[in-house]
Design brief:
15% of the residues lie in helices and 31% in strands. It is α+β, with helices and mostly antiparallel strands and 248 residues long. The strands form 3 sheets. Strands 1, 2, 3, 4, 12, 13, 14 and 15 form an 8-stranded antiparallel beta sheet that branches. A 4-stranded antiparallel beta sheet has the order 7-6-5-11, with no helix packed on it. A 3-stranded antiparallel beta sheet has the order 8-9-10, with no helix packed on it.
Length: 248
């Protein structure tokens, strides 16, 4: 009898150890390597849609206090730092309130001069080439475009190319002052140029310390404002063509 009790206790302890090890492994992976992130708004359409679930590569730029849970002040600046590239899609902490995560495209590096004129992005006084690339319509989600809107494919000087959405050719963000990016900071813009709170507005320049990581892959995607918990709606609303799609 006592032997059976000891076996049960031993088996229970083994199960507990396995669960603890799995949790620790999950924490390490999330803290050091990849963090899941849900797209909450339409500011990065058509590249990223509301309902996309992505992995963020935290190793890409090194680590700051914002790489760790609860952002403890264990060190300043970044360790194992790597310079982000122009055109990267970046998750970062909102400078006025670092408790909030933002995701935008990095278009300006330290020392760059950034300006938008008549809807065209200029980097160091050179227009970023853009060509028409069809139209886009959201799939009935919260940020529905309520129609077809022109898409323009931009190509940066380093060869990074991506689609942007231009819903209105005459908005406040289509003509800006020239921004000079300070040392140790970056300039971010949403691909949905007319509906993005970014460095043109309240976001301002993003300090290197605020970078969390580079968006790398869409691993899941649900359309039509479908909640992840509504499993019974998955078959009708799962965006199969976006599963395991790289973020460009």
């Amino acid at each position: 009898m006592a032997e059976n009790v000891e076996k049960k206790q031993s088996g229970l302890w083994e199960n507990v150890k396995v669960i603890i090890q799995a949790l620790l492994l999950a924490v390490v992976i999330r803290t050091v390597f990849f963090q899941p992130f849900t797209i909450p708004s339409g500011s990065m359409m058509p590249t990223l849609l509301v309902g996309d679930y992505i992995f963020v590569n935290k190793f890409a730029y090194g680590y700051s206090k914002y790489s760790l849970p609860f952002s403890p002040d264990l060190f300043s600046g970044r360790i194992f730092a790597s310079e982000p590239k122009r055109g990267d899609v970046v998750v970062f902490r909102f400078p006025p309130n670092p408790d909030i995560d933002y995701i935008k495209r990095l278009v300006g590096l330290p020392g760059d001069r950034i300006q938008v004129r008549d809807g065209v992005l200029y980097v160091n006084d050179k227009a970023v080439p853009r060509v028409e690339d069809g139209v886009f319509r959201a799939d009935g989600q919260q940020y529905d475009t309520s129609g077809d809107f022109p898409v323009f494919r931009e190509t940066l000087e380093n060869g990074v190319t991506y689609d942007t959405l231009d819903q209105n050719p005459d908005t406040r963000g289509d003509n800006t002052r020239e921004f000079i990016v300070p040392e140790g900071h970056y300039f971010m813009m949403g691909d949905n140029r007319d509906n993005s709170a970014d460095s043109r507005f309240d976001v301002g320049f993003v300090p290197a310390q605020n970078l969390v990581g580079r968006a790398s892959m869409i691993f899941f995607s649900l359309g039509n404002d479908t909640s992840f918990r509504e499993i019974w709606k998955w078959p009708a609303n799962l965006r199969y063509d976006r599963l395991f799609k790289g973020v460009e």
